[in-house]
Specification:
It is a single chain. With 488 residues, the chain is an alpha+beta fold. β1 and β2 form a beta hairpin. GO terms for molecular function: heme binding; iron ion binding; monooxygenase activity; oxidoreductase activity, acting on paired donors, with incorporation or reduction of molecular oxygen.
Length: 488
């Protein structure tokens, strides 16, 4: 009888270290293959740029966490030219054309979807119009409230803008010529205006402002801008772990989105009570929440906004409206403070002529000022992901220098400058609140420059006002302390 059966192979279970080592080797092999594909075979392989950007997103994520992505990419423009690859599926281009033809093609003609950055703004899965990636879906929701931000409707808010500007002047006067950080004051002006526009609610945030006061909404807005950035980079499972760190300030930071959502939810509940009681008919200014209610009353059941949708959308309008306008005013005041006396006097003489009464409403052409930022859209027709458009490069943009008379100089190419000036974006995804922002910015600036000589303060300098890149742009010091001397 054969004994071959005695030598059948016996399966030996693999040890845990063996399995782990094999898994790591397979993962490294796949990463190497992925890197080879992106460097040599990707549709973007011919686009210039550093090899490490083509291989992995880590390079751009590091600079995003350092809040200097814009400058890092601008350095690549200097090294590689106007079209550069910044990630495996991402390119950026610098539109040198004065008429911004390529930028306008992307944002006007092609009607592309938003880039993934905006997906960070979702709150509990509910509607955020700014965070809607798909162009077609966004267009549907934009129609619900687009009329609310029309020039005619914003004109109804001008008395509120004037009242807020006059109150800000009074608050600055209370500083009695001491250096004052104007940054929080401008934020509170915008919080009051947007809550008034959205709910008809008089928050009184600016009225309560003092050097030692603390506004919960403003603090939550500041925290949420950073939180969005972190949540967009850190995996959900990891953030779920680190957010449990038992530190009071850290817990406040991590709950900033919930704080804003719950605050807006309470306002929505109050407005629903007003509607049910029939008191909304007495209002002379239609609010955003009324448009939500009107939409629900006439649309198909499947298209109705839920309570959570209305809350989330209201939160978005607050977030989008406060920081951008406040930061713009702060930078303009800072630049104005360091202008030669002759420039200041010329501007104030014009204001004196237009506003014989220091509290009179002011209307003037927009200032030639803009904050450098990214515009992003998905390039679906190329099937390669994200395209980032640059209006201009830091190194190649002497036009970014603060020049208050640029728009009044007949020798300057006015049409080209207007076409290149896009602080509110371009195309169908242009900032829907631009008329509110323009009105508020001009009114606040006019009131401050009409009533005060704005002078520099040593602590507010190029270093403290360097732009920090979160979801938007902010001065790295998150303050703008200046000297305001009354002209009275």
């Amino acid at each position: 009888m054969s004994t071959m059966g005695s030598f059948l192979p016996i399966a030996v279970p693999a040890t845990v270290p063996t399995i782990l080592a094999s898994t790591i080797l397979v993962a490294l092999f796949l990463l190497i293959l992925r890197g080879i594909y992106h460097v040599y075979f990707s549709p973007l392989s011919s686009i210039p740029g550093p090899w490490y950007a083509a291989v992995s997103e880590i390079w751009i994520l590091v600079h995003t966490l350092r809040c200097r992505k814009v400058r890092a990419i601008d350095d690549l423009f200097k090294a590689y030219g106007p079209v550069v690859r910044i990630a495996p599926t991402t390119i950026a281009f610098l539109d040198k054309d004065h008429e911004q033809q390529t930028t306008r093609l992307v944002y006007n003609a092609l009607k592309l979807d938003k880039g993934p950055l905006y997906d960070m703004v979702h709150m509990n899965g509910h509607l955020h119009s700014v965070a809607i990636i798909e162009h077609s879906v966004h267009a549907k929701y934009r129609r619900i409230f687009s009329s609310h931000y029309s020039p005619g409707n914003i004109a109804l808010l001008h008395p509120d803008m004037k009242a807020s500007a006059e109150l800000l002047v009074q608050k600055v006067l209370e500083a009695k010529d001491r250096p004052l950080d104007i940054f929080p004051g401008i934020h509170l002006v915008m919080i009051d205006l947007i809550l008034k526009s959205t709910f008809g609610h008089d928050q009184g945030a600016l009225e309560a402002w003092s050097e030692h006061s603390h506004d919960i909404i403003m603090s939550a807005i500041e925290d949420y801008g950073r939180l969005i950035l972190i949540q967009g980079i850190v995996p959900d499972w990891l953030f779920g772990v680190v957010r449990r760190f038992p530190n009071k300030r850290w817990q406040t930071f991590c709950s900033s989105g919930d704080t804003l959502f719950n605050t807006m939810a309470e306002f929505v509940r109050e407005q629903q009570k007003e509607k049910d009681a029939g008191r909304m008919d007495e209002r002379d200014k239609p609010t955003l929440i009324e448009r939500f209610f009107a939409h629900n009353a006439t649309c198909a059941p499947a298209d109705r906004l839920s309570f959570e949708d209305m809350t989330s959308e209201s939160m978005t309008h607050l977030l989008a409206g406060v920081d951008a306008s406040a930061v713009a005013v702060a930078y303009i005041l800072w630049r104005f403070a360091s202008q030669p006396l002759s420039v200041k006097q010329k501007i104030q003489a014009e204001l004196d002529s237009a506003m014989p009464d220091a509290g009179m409403h002011f209307s003037k052409k927009d200032c030639g000022f803009t904050v450098q930022s990214l515009l992003s859209s998905n390039v679906l027709h190329l099937k390669v992901g994200l395209l980032i458009c640059w209006g201009t490069s830091f190194q190649q943009a002497p036009s970014l220098e603060f020049d208050v008379f640029r728009w009044l100089d007949s020798d300057q190419p006015q049409d080209a400058m207007l076409q290149a000036w896009a602080p509110y974006g371009l195309g169908t995804r242009i900032c829907i609140g631009q008329h509110l922002a323009r009105g508020a910015i001009k009114t606040v600036l006019a009131a401050l420059l009409r009533n005060f000589d704005v002078l520099p303060f040593p602590e507010t300098n190029d270093e403290s006002m360097e732009m920090m890149e979160l979801f938007g742009m902010f001065p790295v010091g998150l303050s703008c302390k200046l000297n305001f001397r009354s002209r009275a």
